[in-house]
Amino acid sequence: MSKYMVSLIADESVIAAVTPEEMETIVSEMNEFNGALEKAGVVVGGDGLGPSSCARTLRYGEDGDVVVVVVVTDGPYAESKEQIAGYWIFECADLDEAVEWARKAPIRGGVTEVRAIVETAEENFEAYKKVAGR
Known about the structure:
The chain is of the alpha+beta class and about 130 residues long. The protein has a single domain (about 1-130), classed as Dimeric alpha+beta barrel (Alpha-Beta Plaits, 2-Layer Sandwich), CATH 3.30.70.1060. The chain contains four helices and six strands, in the order βααββββαβα. The model has no long low-confidence stretch (mean pLDDT about 85).
């Protein structure tokens, strides 16, 4: 079995505009889906995340100095509205199984990313070498 991080990426302005009634429906559907994940033994953990405006991003210079960034932008372009809103950690036989579970999530709009979790720096290095064809 391997672990996968499932990131829920959404436009924060859409989330902020949800009515209490819509939120009640979303929470109910998510609770039902989370129950199915738990029953199947797929979910290892997960949570929703607070607004990105309350987060801090650390950027590292080549000399190793850290700069704390309060406002995050996509390079020289417009500020990104899509942020990670929450995540699950799935434990599945393979990436295909993790994707199939992620497809069942009651998500309306946004993006879901499913990415393998690596346990060690060596494993991570080997994965990147494999992708690069080395």
